[in-house]
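User: Quick sanity check before I run a bigger batch. Here is a single chain. Can you write out its predicted 3D structure?
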Amino acid sequence: IDSSQSNYAQYIEEVAKVLKEIGAEQVPCLKVFNKIDLRSGFIPRITRGEDGKPTEVWVSAQTGAGIELLQAALSERLSEEVIYTEVTLKSEQGKLRAALYQLGAVLSEQIDSNGHHQLQIRLQRSDYKRLFHLKKSPEDNG
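Assistant: Done. Predicted structure follows.
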């Protein structure tokens, strides 16, 4: 995001609309604000959401200011634990199945003799918990 443009907030809104139109509004996003060297009072920083995860990083690619913060934020976001598991979904759970495909989580799929979808999936633990409305994922201890 070009933070030197006075209308950068409008650009963010437009991108959010497009993401919603394509059904990707739940996809994790890290906003990177560039060109802070062109704005008075803008400093390199990481902004975090309520869950403590990085949501925004303010940098200058030109001067290199904040690049280490961007690397740290990316590392933190991408290193979230990934789980592999198998789930069985009934035909009426089509929205959940579609959400798993949208995340690119489905490794393979078979339909059993009862017409249920058996999916081998790989996804971030937080996505698993969110989609299945659980407090624990299959690999949590205790």
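Helices lie at 8-21, 67-78, 94-102, 125-132.

User: Great, the batch can go ahead then.
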